[in-house]
Structure prediction request, 166 residues.
Amino acid sequence: MTPATKAGSTRRSSTSAESRAQLAYYLGVAMFTRTSTVQPSDACLCGSGHAFAACCGRFLDEGLRPETPELLMRSRYCAYVLQRALYLRETWHPRTRPTAIELDTETTWLGLTVLESATQDETHGTVAFTARYRVRGATRVMHERSRFELRRGAWVYVDGDTSDEA
Ligand SMILES: [Zn+2]
Prediction:
């Protein structure tokens, strides 16, 4: 899909953060928030140990498609860290995608641990993970088992079972 066709299908109800992400996308530059930045040679935010550019940066900044549900899940975690609402939108199944993706600017993501990834068949996969974060001074851990679907040749996030603990 080209940026031009994306522009044609963009809804007008986007949040300001999403609008900024779109602007950055069209300008072809990476958008970084005040609190979260990453350079291409930095260790990827997803914790893989690879450089960002060779890991999730390929998907966030170069438009490549994650080849597996786990790679998509990792890149979506990075998108949350970097507040890349447009990427979250594009990789969310239209059936379950929220009308507006609101990113909580009070949440600081601290790290991701992928516990298990599995594919049920050629078009369905699950990834279980924990994500640590800090919100209003408290550190918490989110557990999720996410479901992914291969749709039109690209893995997309469908939904997940989540729990949260202090
Ligand atoms: Zn990564």
About this structure: The chain is about 25% helix and 30% strand. Residues 14-165 form a domain with the Nuclear Transport Factor 2; Chain: A, fold (CATH 3.10.450.50). Helices lie at 3-9, 16-27, 57-62, 69-81, 85-90. Confidence is low (pLDDT under 50) at residues 1-14, 24-35.
